[in-house]
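dumping this here so i dont lose it
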């Protein structure tokens, strides 16, 4: 069986096989930076599992193999519970929504004792993944490559050049930049790259269950250097750890590593700073591509933090001199291209059926306003309205005779309007507003349509209307 598109019926089948019950709710989760799609499935007893779909079978096979291997070493990863015959749909244990990044955000810049303990635990577990479990992991399962070599380093550096510098319209000298790139490649060529490298070891990929870290998104793992993952965690842009905290956490990592492997701490520290620089350049490329090209605002908002990390690293005593990258960093400090303000706000308005779950927010903002229309008079109870929607005159006439829904719509407009005004003033790019009812056919469609028409007249914005269950889209603008 081959599948290239999401088929929710396969999720249903796998869930029924695993739990003995059909799911009654599918909550689709927002996408991050990949093509993978996730949803939280719940049955009548409240039991939840995470459903995943990824069309890339080779990447899935890496995830399945690594998950099983880490579990054998008592490393906390979500268990893979069921896999479809297409190897594209699967179910995993639901660890919840709480991430280490959430705790960083709540701490509001204070690196408290709880955060210190969580970071230390994560770094201790990282040693187990890299060295202990890494000795026997099946590297033939790696995707897209089994090692972090010169080619992979080149990909990261070119990501910065083509997906950040060029998309941000930063002027640079190709020859001088390549000379610095060559210096980075030569320095890394002599570093031991035989450990397991997680590849994206950062706080969003560390979930917390009962205050215990669990690790996700390790399917890009491969043979690589030890300190790349340490740099990924400690130099994560929005975490904004101080240099003092970073150095203390590195000391903890080095101490844990020394228990399973002989190390030269000073040499390891130099490698840590070098990979922190490489990781920062790669991350800027990712932010540029996802932000400037795909127009995902939360990636754009991360760019100034990554630039600050780059500045900090270039001011330190790195193992190599990178004069031209330093020159570029000075340009980035004053570049207008790093502005997070949008030229125009887009409000995305949805109608939907609660049976299929609340629409997920592809902008990366994590969602917006959701209004429940199920308390309004329901035309769906009458046979004559079975084959029409809230866009049809018959339903509009029905609601004229049952006017409570227009008051509901007035209240929704008054509720959202101040936020639209704030978003316009602050230069935000996207706001999502959704209206749901039982079937997503009558009440929610009527409200979403009416709301979109109202705000498009009230504000100088773009409005994108999507009636999800009818597969209808429409745009409004002044």
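and the seq i came up w/
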């Amino acid at each position: 069986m081959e599948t290239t598109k999401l088929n929710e019926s396969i999720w249903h089948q796998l869930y029924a096989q695993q739990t003995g019950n059909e799911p009654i709710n599918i909550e689709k989760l927002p996408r991050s930076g990949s093509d993978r799609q996730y949803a939280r499935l719940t049955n009548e007893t409240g039991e939840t599992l995470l459903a995943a779909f990824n069309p890339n079978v080779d990447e899935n096979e890496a995830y399945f193999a690594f998950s099983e291997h880490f579990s054998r070493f008592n490393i906390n990863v979500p268990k893979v519970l069921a896999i479809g015959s297409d190897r594209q749909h699967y179910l995993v244990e639901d660890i919840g929504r709480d991430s280490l990044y959430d705790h960083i955000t709540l701490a509001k810049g204070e690196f408290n004792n709880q955060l210190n303990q969580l970071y230390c635990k994560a770094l201790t577990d990282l040693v187990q993944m890299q060295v202990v479990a890494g000795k026997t992991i099946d590297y033939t399962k790696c995707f897209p490559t089994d090692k972090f070599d010169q080619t992979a380093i080149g990909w990261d550096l070119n990501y910065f050049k083509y997906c950040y510098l060029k998309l941000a319209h930063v002027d640079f000298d190709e020859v001088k930049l390549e000379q610095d790139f060559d210096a980075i490649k030569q320095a890394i060529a002599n570093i031991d790259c035989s450990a397991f490298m997680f590849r994206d070891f950062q706080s969003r990929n560390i979930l917390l269950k009962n205050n215990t870290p669990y690790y996700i998104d390790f399917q890009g793992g491969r043979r690589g250097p030890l300190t790349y993952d340490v740099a990924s965690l400690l130099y994560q842009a929005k975490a904004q750890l101080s240099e003092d905290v970073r150095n203390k956490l590195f000391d903890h990592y080095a101490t844990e590593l020394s228990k399973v492997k002989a190390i030269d701490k000073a040499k390891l520290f130099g490698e840590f700073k070098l990979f922190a620089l490489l990781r920062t350049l790669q991350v800027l490329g990712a932010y540029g591509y996802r932000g400037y090209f795909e127009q995902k605002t939360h990636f754009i908002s991360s760019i100034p933090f990554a630039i600050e990390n780059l500045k900090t690293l270039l001011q330190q005593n790195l193992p190599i001199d990178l004069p031209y990258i330093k020159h570029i960093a000075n340009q980035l400090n004053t570049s207008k291209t790093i502005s997070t303000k949008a030229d125009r706000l887009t409000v995305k308005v949805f109608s939907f059926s609660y049976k299929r779950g609340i629409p997920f927010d592809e902008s990366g903002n994590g969602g917006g306003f959701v209004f429940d229309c199920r308390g309004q008079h329901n035309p769906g109870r009458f046979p004559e309205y079975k084959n029409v929607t809230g866009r049809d005159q018959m339903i509009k006439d029905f609601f004229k005779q049952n006017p409570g829904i227009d008051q509901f719509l007035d209240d929704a407009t008054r509720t959202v309007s101040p936020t639209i005004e704030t978003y316009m003033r602050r230069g935000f790019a996207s706001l999502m507003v959704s209206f749901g009812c039982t079937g997503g056919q009558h009440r929610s469609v009527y409200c979403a349509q009416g709301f979109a028409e109202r705000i498009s007249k009230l504000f100088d914005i773009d409005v994108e209307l999507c009636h999800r269950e009818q597969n209808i889209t429409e745009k409004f603008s002044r």
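The two ends are 48 Å apart (CA to CA).
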